[in-house]
Amino acid sequence: MEPPSSSKPSSARSVPKSASSRASSSSPPNPSTSQQVAPVSAQGGGHHGPKINSTSDLIKVSLGALGVVYGDIGTSPLYALKECLTGPHGTSPTPDNVLGILSLVFWSLVLVVVVKYITFITRADNQGEGGILALLALLAPRGATTKKLTPRVAMVLLGLFGAALLYGDGIITPAVSVLGALEGLEVVTTAFKPLVVPVTIGVLVGLFLAQRHGTAKVGALFGPVMMLWFVCIAAVGVPWIVKNPKVLQAVSPHHAVLFFAHHKLHGFLALGAVVLCITGGEALYADMGHFGRRSIRLAWYAVVLPALLLNYFGQGALMLSRGASITNPFYEMVPRFALYPMLVIATAAAVIASQALISGVFSLTRQAVQLGYWPRVTIKHTSGDAEGQIYVPEMNYALMIGCVWLVFAFRAEGSSGLAAAYGIAVTGTMGITSILFGAVAQERWGWSARRTYLHVGLFLLIDLSFFGANLAKFVHGGWIPIVLAVAIYVLMTTWKAGRQALEEFVMSASLPIDLFMMDLESQRPPRVKGTAVFMTSNPEGAPVVLLHHFKHNKVLHEQVVLLSVVTDRVPEVPRQKRVQVKEMGQGFYQVVAHYGFMQMPNVPDVLRCCRDAGLVTAESDTSYYLGRETLLNTGKSGLWQWRKALFGVLSRNARPATQFFGIPANRVVEMGAQIEI
């Protein structure tokens, strides 16, 4: 059957008159490419997270959390204190400065990670799932492109920009972590210095090329390797603390106060380097759905926090003893005989930290697609057991190019140059998370305004202090995550605005289903064997693809399924609550399939779920009718011309609906459509 090439077919006597008048105008978009995003509903399943039934289960899951959740913050000792006391943005390593910086590091870990994230932010979960888009879904936003800027819309826009900043974090983290680890080659011998950048690029390229194979097999090693890493960094720090116990005085906050009082503005700007010790706090929250709050807390208090403090204080003790002669405190406190093993372990830990951020970008992209803020992309599941292990080729190669470019562009400055670009993305996201947390606390938990402002105000005081200090590094590389975030933010909001414009066109051009059924009963057209599936974003209207099919082919199948895929604002919808089936008579069925924003829709599986509700279809005798749209920038959607052009580019390069929805390509009939936006 040849699909029509024009969106303006001539009238046909067999089509109902009301349908003909609707279908004769420029066709609305392919309904199958649109997904409704519903508010939080009863369709959501239970708590999302690991099953922990015993102490051994808790320990096992906590070990896994070490390898994923704490990879980023766990490798911060490679470069954090180095930037604070020896880097271009740091202070001279005098005894008072060392104690002041260590005090800032200690209290940053306590206030940001322990108080803010572990104690409060992790409570704001969406059925166990964390992360900035999970917070956004929890607030049940009604769209980011509403013309009137209400507080709700402002929250949505802010959350989207925070998500965009995380993409910048995903590019910078692998580069700075691997480069920081391999800079240990310079400590072994200066002859290795020319090899640092090429080896770093080689490791990064290998890491990204390996993504297509998945992490199911090597992922089991992440936890034990990171446990070894934390044990090693704690072990190398203890001897130096024993040699110079004076360093423990830094636990007192008065050293931080004296540091600020002495250095004034420069002391404030030093926070731009101190923030490197808390990078990874957002990952702690974002990965909560995979490991659960209890496991994340146990891993932090039992392993991560003690190891980090012992290492930081060990580096501080070394600098108290040797002062300005130290250039790389992490590696210089390692015994000479252990340098090579530590270099290998550090590189492995940096790769694991990079893997966690790469996987996080994949997960973030999938959530953005499901919530309607990103074009359809290729999403491949790399594990049959773990649903969260996915591979997104488009994002993988974009990250690889970005990481390699960063390492090459900052080859002269090394990790110090990359560290300058690091803090803005991290602190910006942290500040936005604090604001969204306040909205959730007040709206969902019923916090009073006074209580909300007190907590959020304290969090923002810390977040904005770090952010302000990092703005001073804007011209030294800090512009990179900002420019990247703005670009991604524009893409996300343009895609959302374009899809909303198309959905409005669908609603205006579709025919009420009741009217279509009445006309159909009077017409009684010929019926052929089999099932026809028409996907629609409007369950209350007759899909225009159905009207065009009826107009041109003048027949209908025995069974006609009007299928809508709805993304609920919950992480997952259980299979037993997946579909709602309504029999409409005359062989017509209305099916609404519910998915969570952490799940991928699959239309053939939806039809299999319908069997329990009385809708039985044969896969070999089912045809799927989709529309192939051509966008015309001649409509009056309210979008600027450049956004219409950008949306057209995104739409043309989005993954085909047949692949995204798992529809067999050899069972699809496409019909041409011209869309005015």
From the coordinates shown, what is the CATH architecture of the largest domain?
Answer: Up-down Bundle
- Unreliable residue runs: 1-34, 39-46, 141-146
What is the CA–CA distance across the termini? Answer: 29 Å
Average of pLDDT: 82
Helicity, as a percent range: 55-70%
Query: From the helix content, strand content and strand pairing, which structural class follows?
Result: alpha/beta
Give me the count of strands. Answer: 11
Domains, number: 2
Structure description:
The protein is an alpha/beta fold and 677 residues long. Helices cover 56% and strands 10% of the residues. It folds into two domains: 17-33 and 512-676, no CATH class; 56-496, Amino acid/polyamine transporter I (Up-down Bundle), CATH 1.20.1740.10. The protein has 27 helices and eleven strands. The strands form three sheets. Strands 1, 5, 7, 8, 9, 10 and 11 form a seven-stranded mixed beta sheet that branches. A two-stranded antiparallel sheet has the order 2-3. A hairpin with an 8-residue loop joins β2 and β3 (390-391). α6 (132-138) runs antiparallel to α7 and α20 packs across α22 (479-509).
